[in-house]
Each structure stands twice: as structure tokens, then as C-alpha cells.
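--- STAGE predict ---
source: upstream dedup step, 1 unique chain passed
mode: sequence only
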Amino acid sequence: MMKRKNNIKKLGVFLIIAIALVSCDKIKNPYKPVSAGNTPGTSANDSTNLDTTLYPGNWNDYLTTVWPSFSPNTNANRNVLIEDFTGHKCPNCPAAAVIAQQIETDNPGRVFTASIHAGPSATGLTDFQETDTDFPEDFTNPQGLGYGIFFYNGYGFAGNPRGPVNRTVFGTDFMFTSPTSWTANATNTINDNVLAVNIQAIVNYYPTTHGMYLHTEVEALTDLPASARLVVYFIQDEVIAPQKNGPVTDPAYHHHDIHRGNIDEQMWGQALLADGVALLTGKKARLNYAYKIPDQYDPATCHLLIYVMNNDTKEVYQVIKQAIL
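--- STAGE serialize ---
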């Protein structure tokens, strides 16, 4: 009976994600109501499509007194995103998490991890992500599972644990590599320090509505392709829940940096354009988001990872970490 239920669950997830991949605009995460306003060019005060009800006051006051402006961005460093594709029934995954955490510790403010609970399959699910009475926490979400489906073929995603570093191909390897390659790949990226784009972000959070407004500014330091996109991950800092760890199950394992979905529910985020065309050197794009944080999450123990990517190659050009509180 349990196997039949799991099969039904897999089929259901497959249908949802298959539809989402055909039309990214249709991706829905039912527990994350969100709206996004895309403000290209130099206009920083466009509130198009934002959910104004998340502001506990007069929206005109927000526009005139709260809406932020950005100072010049003097950052000169390219940061690193490690996407650790994992599963709570994966016995080798805790060792990969240790590697990712050590790379972050050794490179403070330069390396950030997203633990994505998905596997390489037609549904994004493998046995490693399934839930049952012994593993009740569901760490999956539609966008994460969608990545498992997309990277299933041609990217080296052979199984958990594996993952890319800035979704870059190093040498003759595939984009997805064993965790044993992450340290060298992150070090090479930091040492090369090829910075194509800068990102700034400001968050305004309102506890009475559990809503936040995210304001971002993206500045091209070189000509970006028309396929450049901005993606925002919602990350939970830590959850204590069962995890397979080698031959045993740790009932109180500390899961770190858990990807809980994308705040606009889009796998590949929002287009980065200036006046409707590709973002060229020196140009800026400003994108604004309204997001109601699901009630089960404490914003004090969550953060955002905001990154710019090439939607043709999927390479991550730059990533920053943004606190909510």
C-alpha cells in the first residue's frame, strides 16, 4: 500500500512539473502567494503588479517614504553558489553537506549553499526524497523538483549527492560534479574573480502581514545576453529532522540552507532588461517583489539567495545573500 501511495505521489508531482516546464508562467507553489513587479531601466519607483496589501498602511506612503534608493555598488568580487542536490534518505549526503559548509566557512561572504531536495528523474523525485512515518518532513517544492527534471540529462546529474558550482563546467567535467570537486571549483572561481554583474538588495518586512518587499538593483559590468535572468531562492537556515547518515538514521540531524522554493515561483526567474533590450555595460535593471512568507517559517531564521544567470547556458554570474530581518 505504501509503495502504491508513493507511486501515486510521484505521478502527481510529474504531471505538475511537466506542465510547469512547458509554460514557466504557470508554475504554482500553493503555499507561497507572491507577486512581482519587473522594473527595467533606471526607473526605481514602479510598483506594477505588487501586492500592496502586505504593507500595513497607506500604499502611497510606502511609495513616497519607504521605497528605497540604491547607492553606487563598489563590489569587485564574484561570489559562488553551490547547489547541493540532496535527500533525507541519501546515506552519503551528509558528507556532501559538510564539504559545502566548510567551503562557506573558509570563504566568508563569498560562498553560499542551497540544499535542493531533488533527484535526477522524470519527476525530480527519487527514493531519497520520499516521505513516510520515519521521515515525515517534506523538503521538496515544485521549483526544486523542476531542476531535478531539467538537469536529468546532459549535465552530469548522475545521482545524489551531486551539484554545480555557479553552474559552470570546469575542465572536461559536466556542470554537476561530485562534492569532492566543489572545493577546487569554488577556489578557482574566487581566484579568477571574473565579475560580470553586480547585485544590490533591500528587504522591508512587516510582521503583522508576514509580508516582505524585496527591491533589487542589477548593474551590468559587461554586456549581458538577452537571456540574463534574476532568480530569488527562499532559504530556511536550519531544520532538525531525520536523515540517513551512512548505515544509520540520525533522528535529530541538522539540515542547513534548505531551498524552500523561489519567491516568484519561476524556475528561471525574471528577465533582466533595460528599456526592453539586453542589459549592456553600465546599464541597470531594478526588479521588485512582494512575498507573503508562509506562516510555518520564521523570517529571523530564513534568508534569500539572489542570483543572476544566463538562461541559455544556466551559468550563474553572481549571487548575494540577503537577510530578511
